[in-house]
Amino acid sequence: MSRIDERNSRVFVITSPATFELQNQLKTADACLRNLHWPTDRSITVFSEAKYVGYKDEEHISPLHKDNQWSKAYLAEYFGASDKFIRMPALSP
Fold first, then answer.
1. Is 49 helix (H, G, I), strand (E, B) or coil?
2. What strands, in cross-sheet order, belong to the sheet with 10-14?
3. Is the pTM of this model over 0.85?
4. Which residues of 38-47 are buried (b: 16+ CB within 10 A; e: fewer)?
5. Residues 85, 34: contact at Cβ < 8 Å?
6. Which residues contact residue 10 at a Cβ distance below 8 angstroms, ignoring those fewer than 6 apart?
7. Does the pLDDT value for residue 51 go beyond 70?
8. Model confidence over 8-33: pLDDT tens digits?
9. Beta-carbon neighbour count of residue 26 at 10 Å?
């Protein structure tokens, strides 16, 4: 785990882009959050490297938008309430 945003019920994690079982791992992580009684609208955000962890409009992230660096490093998003998994959400149409 890299960062926790309790106010927005979001956990930021870092993993390799080559992880093929990412969706199943995120469901397992979500089950752990459920056991910790996190709100049902929780989400897990996955990045490839620690330097990219954060929301797109945060000050330290702004320079990382050059050449879509941040978007490419944003590997996946998992929404616990809907059990929805999105791979490469910043690059998806």
1. coil
2. 3-5, 10-14, 43-47, 74-79, 84-87
3. no
4. beeebbbbbb
5. no
6. 4, 42, 43, 44, 45
7. yes
8. 889 898 887 666 577 777 777 777 77
9. 25
